């Protein structure tokens, strides 16, 4: 079993067809979820009439910049870790040199990539942020009260590719190929999990934010940040 | 995980009506509201919330109960709407009472938490859904239910019908003439600048408040009026029940009164 899992054939499968499957599930799944929600929202009488570009934008800008909203200023540490985590989570995989080279080999184009040391720091930062989130979930009473297994699973899904990626890159302790294969599997799981778990706040964030921002701006003439 | 500990709330509106409910009724009502009425926004909210607990700082219940974690907005949603969705409406009477207790007595739907949520999740909307489900099942504080029925039967909050209202205005006018000569509480004056619509209780228990505003209007020589017909009451308790049908009727009636009298402004009390 171990021999099969670390075999070249399995590695090639994960690097080839499985990547296609993962991306197709990710893109189609996300599109489906978004279209489903947008169609469903047409039945809701107070969604579309409330939307306003100006106030959606105002709300999004305040919540996309660190310390742009009152609640972020009330929780400076949480803000710091949350922003570091999300920036690292989005930028590192896209601009990591080995990842860029994989795209280059497959499709022949390449883009700017992060310096190795910087990518290392970002990876460690993401892992550290996940540790912070887990500690916060375990010890802050108001968060522990509403923490369920699914919340830890979501953090694990996000953290696992980074941990294995870091281990594979530095070839620590564990056998390189096994860790690399694990890294690929976990990365593909994460991609496929996005549309079907609460990780889809990646897409829904924009919609809920826009609606609430518009409502507060247009109808209540107040801030929502 | 710490427990949710509460003193027993005794309210005939909860305890007596809940005894007559069958599990099928509860299931049907919960699923009707969650699937037919609330589909899109509720779905987006429930599937976006990451349980970060950042909304807690907004909640005055949470802060005034010495930061008890069971009073955070997200915990309240977790124990009502999410619980219903997970159980697909298959809940017993005791759980339904918990929903009603949280919905009616532990959240006053001020919506401050939506301003604190990083995703802008409208928690107030989810709590009003809880209230709606409970009040459709007639599980709501008796006092509030009573006011809701009053809106349905007499078009005012306090069981004061239209003829009583006109009567009240007349004796308030009589009494006011002891202070101001020829004081008037003009009814149905078409084209007036201001339509004053009182709180229902001003007409029932605290007529001195109606008298006070009339005194101000008379001394200021304002061009004002009040409707003699239904729609004079500015309050709307059906809103707090999540009874959207009655709420709509009451609001429409109030607005139509202003339109019928062709007034420029509607001034409400309180």
Q: What is the averaged pLDDT score of chain B?
A: 91
Can you identify the CATH class of the largest domain in chain B? Mainly Alpha
Strand content of chain B: under 5%
Query: How would you name the oligomeric state of the polypeptide chains in this document?
Result: heterodimer
Mean pLDDT of chain A: 91
Number of domains of chain B: 2
Largest interface: A-B, 44 and 36 residues
Task: Determine the number of helices of chain B (DSSP H or I, runs of at least 4 residues).
Answer: 15
Proportion of residues in helical segments of chain A: over 70%
H/E topology pattern of chain B: HHHHHHHHHHHEHHEHHE
Coarse structural class of chain A: mainly alpha
**What percentage of the residues of chain A does DSSP assign to strands (E)?**
under 5%
Question: Distance between termini of chain B?
Answer: 43 Å
Please explain how this structure is put together:
The complex is a heterodimer of chains A (225) and B (270). Chain A has helices spanning 2-5, 8-15, 17-41, 53-64, 70-74, 76-95, 97-107, 116-139, 141-144, 149-170, 176-193, 201-219. Chain A has 225 residues and is an all-alpha fold. In chain A, helix 4 (53-64) crosses helix 12 (201-219) and helix 8 (116-139) packs antiparallel against helix 10 (149-170). The two termini of chain B are 43 Å apart. By secondary structure, chain B is mostly helical. Chain B is built from 15 helices and 3 strands. Helices cover 56% and strands 4% of the residues of chain B. Chain B is elongated. In chain B, strands 2-1-3 form a 3-stranded parallel beta sheet, with no helix packed on it. The chains are: A mainly alpha (225), B mainly alpha (270). Chain A binds chain B through residues 37, 40-44, 47, 59, 63, 69-71, 74-75, 78, 82, 140-148, 151, 154, 198, 200-201, 204-205, 207-209, 211-213, 215-216, 222-225, and chain B through 1-2, 39-41, 43-45, 47-54, 56-58, 62, 67, 69-70, 72, 74-75, 78, 114-122.
Pick out its properties.
heterodimer; A: 225 residues; mainly alpha; 12 helices; 0% strand; globular; B: 270 residues; Fumarate Reductase Iron-sulfur Protein, Chain B, domain 2; 2 domains; 3-stranded parallel sheet; 3 strands
């Amino acid at each position: 079993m171990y021999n099969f899992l670390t075999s070249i054939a399995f590695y090639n499968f994960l690097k080839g067809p499985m990547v296609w499957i993962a991306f197709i599930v990710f893109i189609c799944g996300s599109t489906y979820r978004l279209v489903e929600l947008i169609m469903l929202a047409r039945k809701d009488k107070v969604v579309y009439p409330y939307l306003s570009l100006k106030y959606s934008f105002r709300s999004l800008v305040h919540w996309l910049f660190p310390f742009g909203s009152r609640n972020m200023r009330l929780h400076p540490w949480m803000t710091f870790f949350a922003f570091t985590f999300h920036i690292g989570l989005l930028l590192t995989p896209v601009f990591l040199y080995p990842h860029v080279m994989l795209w280059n080999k497959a499709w022949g184009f390449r883009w700017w990539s992060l310096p190795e040391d910087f990518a290392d720091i970002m990876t460690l930062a993401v892992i550290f942020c996940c540790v912070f989130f887990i500690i916060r979930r375990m010890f802050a009473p108001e968060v522990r009260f509403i923490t369920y297994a699914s919340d830890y699973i979501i953090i694990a899904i996000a953290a696992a590719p980074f941990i294995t990626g870091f281990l594979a890159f530095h070839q620590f302790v564990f056998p390189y190929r096994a860790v690399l294969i694990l890294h690929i599997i976990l990365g593909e799981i994460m991609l496929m999990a996005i549309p079907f778990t609460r990780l889809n706040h990646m897409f829904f964030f924009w919609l809920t934010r826009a609606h609430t921002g518009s409502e507060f701006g247009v109808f209540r003439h107040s801030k929502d940040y | 995980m710490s427990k949710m500990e509460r003193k027993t709330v005794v309210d005939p509106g909860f305890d007596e009506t809940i005894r007559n409910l069958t599990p099928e009724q509860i299931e049907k009502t919960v699923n009707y509201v969650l699937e037919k009425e609330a589909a899109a926004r509720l779905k987006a909210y429930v599937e976006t919330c990451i349980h970060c607990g950042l909304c807690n700082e907004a909640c005055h219940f949470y802060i005034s109960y010495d930061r008890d974690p069971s009073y955070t907005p997200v915990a309240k949603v977790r124990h009502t709407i999410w619980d219903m969705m997970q159980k697909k409406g298959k809940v017993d009477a005791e759980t339904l009472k918990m929903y009603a207790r949280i919905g009616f007595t532990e959240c006053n739907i001020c919506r401050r938490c939506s301003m604190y949520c990083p995703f802008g999740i409208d928690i107030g909307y989810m709590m009003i859904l809880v209230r709606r489900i409970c009040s459709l099942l007639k599980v709501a504080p008796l006092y509030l239910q009573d006011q809701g029925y009053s809106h349905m039967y007499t078009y005012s909050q306090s069981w004061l019908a239209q003829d009583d209202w006109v009567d009240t205005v007349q004796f308030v006018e009589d009494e006011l003439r002891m202070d101001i000569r020829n004081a008037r509480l003009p009814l149905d004056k078409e084209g007036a600048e201001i339509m004053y619509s009182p709180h229902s209780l001003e007409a029932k228990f605290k007529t001195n408040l109606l008298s006070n505003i009339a005194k101000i209007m008379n001394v200021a020589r304002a061009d004002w009026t009040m409707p003699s017909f239904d729609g004079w009451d500015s309050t709307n308790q059906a809103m707090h029940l999540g009874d959207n049908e009655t709420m709509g009727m009451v609001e429409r009636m109030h607005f139509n009164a202003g339109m019928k009298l062709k007034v420029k402004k509607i001034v409400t009390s309180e």
